[in-house]
Specification:
homodimer, 9 helices, DNA-binding
Chain lengths: ~190, ~190
Amino acid sequence: MPITTAKTSPRQRLLDAANELFYAEGIHSVGIDRVIAQAGVAKASLYSTFGSKEGLVCAYLDGRHEIMIGRLRAAVEQVDDPVEKMLAVLDGQAAHFARPEFRGCAFVAAAAEAPAEGEIAEATARYRNEVRSLFAQLATEAGIANPEQLADQLRLIYDGGSLAANLDHNPAIAASARAAARILIDAAPRVAAS
Amino acid sequence: MPITTAKTSPRQRLLDAANELFYAEGIHSVGIDRVIAQAGVAKASLYSTFGSKEGLVCAYLDGRHEIMIGRLRAAVEQVDDPVEKMLAVLDGQAAHFARPEFRGCAFVAAAAEAPAEGEIAEATARYRNEVRSLFAQLATEAGIANPEQLADQLRLIYDGGSLAANLDHNPAIAASARAAARILIDAAPRVAAS
DNA sequence: CCAGGACTAGACAGACCTGTCTGTTCAATG
DNA sequence: CATTGAACAGACAGGTCTGTCTAGTCCTGG
């Protein structure tokens, strides 16, 4: 059994190529042929591994899901104060804006290109729910009386920030987003103090 | 000279068909043939009128631009208080969410499908700038000390709301958006009172 | 050594796309 | 009436796409 494959596996090379090409240029604009060329893999390998282009797209989205949520959680864990943890989510996002390859939210882009119902829409919904749950959990830990509502509002800012950073080529929007989030958090009622 | 054409002009029928099909299903998913079939127009008419598919897409976006901005301005003019005017923009947007044909922001969808630079991206940028300018103008009239920053923040909410209403199938997000906007407006410093 | 599975290379089918081009119809105008 | 221009209908070219299939290669376990 191969403990280390010399090169990375075809599966991984396909995912890497998909991540790079689909994210940079869009799913519709990038054909299968370009993905396999970039991955250095035969077309049959793609279809035996992922079944279809949509299967590859879903795997690409699932990969980004794990990476993005991981980054957000890592940013959260770097601070202790519960309020700062909520803001740290936005800081993790802001670091994402600053990357040169940033091209907006992969899930928003994928959902815009895919039919309204289907596996891609479901992958998008999973990601969006997880971001919202993260905000809600942190709001609960911070003693917010209505954590679900604050989570909705913080995710408005999260989503709007991603859109503006991309479409307006303005990563500095993160500062306004953070300031707005702090105002909303400060204004949110707390549970009755003990 | 025809004062009234019996049917609407081919140009208008094409725009109507484009508006319906591109918005409902996406630009890439709808081919020229379906547009002309729905419009009841010959292909040559499309190409002599708009030059290319991209030309038709731009005209479709420009049409939505005028309609959307018009709706927002109409909502603004229904109230007098400067603070309420800012909130009225979101109310105009919320009415848009409630329409059965609502499928998210046409400009966000178009930008996601189009290359990052080009006429479609420019049409998107024009729309986004106009929304932002509207918020900034109203903030100025309301005596906000830093209207540009508040406009950025309100547009975060505007954009995030559109995304959530569409991707989460949750038009009720408008209530959270309005509440958040009010908090941000109330918290924004005013110019020194006379 | 050999058998079997994984992978590669690339042709191919069938569908769809945009954009062009050729004719035809029809109404308005000179 | 004759002409002209707009619009129609639809074939066509040239390209791209997904997904399938054939055939060959390589590596590993037995």
